[in-house]
Design goal:
The chain has 31 helices and no strands. With 647 residues, the chain is an all-alpha fold.
């Protein structure tokens, strides 16, 4: 499928988009998980088998083991540390010897994992010591934290370490904590490195990541792109709409904004440029859509599992409540793409070049694992068991298609991919646990709450704006899962404790604004990846992506002001009215931003439409009536001009 679409681009146009080599370079530059050591021959097979064995071990541990959490969590991190030093070099881009691990990396791997394994075998003694840990245990705690930080630098980058470093500095300098107390709280309790984030990662997230790897092995990504082409490829501005739909679908099982951008963008961005979209707009569409994939249920970039744990509600509740905001987000991008295509006079792809929907119907069995997963979770099965059964169903589903049928080697590859994809999440969760530990140990959260609530002076809107700014600032360059942990630890309590906002609304709010950091300048990693494929200006692409994702900046305010959007304390009639007015509001705002509705809009018309759209997004019967009135009036005024334009 990918090759056919790529070959459809003419030679002159192909020169204006990234090649496969460019894509590989992008992944190594922006997605640190792709920057690994070169392994070949028998050593590569050994590494592959070890990773596959790690995945199997995690499945068995979650199915059968009844170990104490203070055994499970450090054991999990100790194994992760070993694999990070086996797979990731000290510096990205440096020339690597094949099948070679430097002696310093071997030493660091053994020391780092040894610190965590020491905890596993001596946890009862350490518990009895409480805060009176010995000097040896203090030294091991310091080494373990520092080596985990080095793992994080290699796998996810510097930004999260800067944030964590500032929090640890505050523990010493601001709160005056001693070294022994800091090490004890951050390394030897379940409120620090081995806290809730690592606990959730080692139980739920790892199993869903493995499920995602098996689901991708069934060929579902190609199926999603084909479906998107069949549905929207021939419509006005079809390729951009294909990018929106396919990224939303692929994002359901992907946890990386950059990875999703590169995977689907290598197909959709060349098609968009061929149709006539400017490069910075094409890259922005893909970046904004791929970033939104992480707010699309059921997996939501693994943050949904953490949210369920932190808020204390079933995972199914989070999934259900996230549906409408996610649809509004993608609906906003879809509408802006449509109006841009109308304004530029862009057409879709020829129908004869697109897959026929009737030919795709026989492949709908590929969705069976996803459907079964959601049904099992909603019916009350444990998340671990649901993920494992859905994974087994992926294997069964693959047997139907000869091209993607899983043999023994295919099973090993899927298990390997699951383990690889877990490493970055596990390390990020460990470092995010440090931040959560400092907040718990020092009472820093209460200081944040007091400061922002004092400035807000009881006004929820002011508190939301200040919290949004904190989220975007702290979330720049930080992976999705760790991003949410930081936001939930530092920012969500401002809204729940300080402003008495519903816990799900508050956590969803900070999650949204942590995610958009991936497309918000200056650290807009997904937008930069999209610009590299489109060969466009990175900053212009980032600003375009931010504008396209306008729904992500508006929708969180709506569900905080009116929780009915998240199906909280509402009736079916209220939900229907919210859906109608919200979508009408997004139509008006998208039209205003793109300067086109039924014809080109002048400045005054754009201002009026934007005001009407915002009025419909703001909860309340009066504002809804005002917004609907403005939108209806604009449609009536546009009709005569549309006829002249058509003539």
């Amino acid at each position: 499928m990918d090759e056919k679409k790529t070959n459809a681009v003419t030679e002159s146009q192909a020169a204006d988009v990234g090649t496969q080599a460019d894509v590989d370079a992008i992944m190594k530059k922006y997605d640190r998980e792709s920057n690994t050591r070169p392994w070949e021959g028998k050593p590569a097979k050994v590494i592959q088998l070890l990773l596959a064995a790690f995945s199997l071990f995690m499945i068995c541990m979650n199915l059968f083991a009844v170990w104490d959490e203070r055994i499970r969590r450090p054991l999990f991190l100790g194994i992760v540390v070993l694999f990070v030093f086996l797979l990731f070099p000290i510096k990205k881009g440096m020339k690597q010897k094949v099948n070679h691990v430097p002696i310093y990396d071997i030493i660091l791997a053994l020391m780092g994992s040894g610190c965590f394994f020491y905890y596993v075998f001596n946890y009862r003694t350490i518990i009895n010591h409480a805060t009176r840990i010995s000097q040896l245990e203090q030294v091991l705690g310091i080494i373990g934290i520092l080596i985990l930080a080095e793992c994080c630098r290699r796998v996810t980058g510097i930004p999260i370490l800067v944030v964590a470093g500032c929090f640890v500095a505050y523990a010493f300098l601001g709160a005056g904590k001693s070294l022994r107390i800091v090490i004890y709280n951050l390394f030897y309790t379940t409120t620090g490195v081995i806290g809730t984030p690592v606990g959730v990662c080692s139980t739920y997230i790892v199993l869903f990541v493995i499920f995602g790897a098996f689901l991708e092995a069934t060929g579902i990504a190609d199926f999603f792109i084909s479906c998107a082409n069949a549905l929207a490829g021939s419509s006005t501005g079809g390729p951009a709409k294909v990018a929106v739909i396919s990224s939303a679908l692929c994002g359901m099982v992907s946890g990386s904004s950059v990875g999703n951008t590169v995977t689907t963008g290598s197909v959709t961005i060349p098609m968009m440029k061929k149709t006539g979209y400017p490069g910075e707009f094409a890259g922005a569409v893909e970046a904004a859509s791929s970033t939104g994939g992480q707010i699309m249920p059921p997996i939501m970039g693994a943050a949904a599992f953490l949210m369920a744990e932190i808020v204390g509600v079933p995972y199914a509740d989070i999934v259900v409540r996230a549906i409408l905001p996610a649809i509004l987000y993608f609906g906003g991008i879809f509408l802006m793409v449509h109006f841009r295509a109308k304004r530029l006079g862009l057409r879709g792809l020829p129908r004869e070049s697109l897959p026929k929907f009737k030919n795709l119907l026989p492949k709908f069995y590929l969705l069976l694992p996803l459907v079964v997963l959601v049904v099992m979770i909603v019916r009350g099965f444990t998340m671990s068991r649901s993920a494992i059964i859905a994974t087994l169903l992926c294997i069964a589903v693959s047997m139907v298609d000869q091209e993607h049928r899983m043999d023994l080697q295919g099973l090993i590859k899927a298990l390997e991919a699951g383990a690889r994809n877990t490493l970055s999440i596990a390390v990020a969760c460990g470092i995010a646990g440090i931040i959560a530990g400092v907040v718990t140990m020092t009472g820093l959260g209460q200081i944040f709450i007091s400061a922002i609530v004092g400035i807000a002076n009881g006004q929820l809107m002011i508190a939301l704006v200040l919290t949004m700014l904190c989220c975007i600032l702290l979330g720049m360059g930080v992976p999705t899962t760790a991003n949410y942990i930081i936001m939930a630890t530092t920012c969500a309590p401002i809204l729940t404790t300080g402003m008495h906002l519903n816990a799900i609304c508050a956590n969803m709010f900070v999650f949204y604004f942590g995610i958009v950091a991936d497309i918000t300048p200056p650290v807009a990693l997904a937008a930069y990846a999209g610009s590299a494929i489109a060969k466009s200006d990175p900053m212009k692409t980032a600003f375009n992506a931010t504008r396209l994702a306008i729904a992500a900046f508006l929708v969180p305010y709506i569900f905080c002001m009116n929780p009915a959007m998240l199906f909280i304390d509402t009736t079916p009639i209220d939900v229907v009215l919210i859906i109608i007015t919200s979508f009408a509001g997004m139509i008006a705002i998208a039209s205003a931003l793109e300067g086109y509705m039924l014809r080109n809009l002048n400045a005054l018309e754009r201002i009026l439409l934007a005001a009407g759209g915002l009025a419909m997004l703001i909860p309340g019967a009066v504002t809804d009536l005002i917004g609907v009135g403005i939108l209806a009036a604009m449609v009536v005024l546009q009709l005569p001009g549309r006829k002249k334009t058509a003539a």
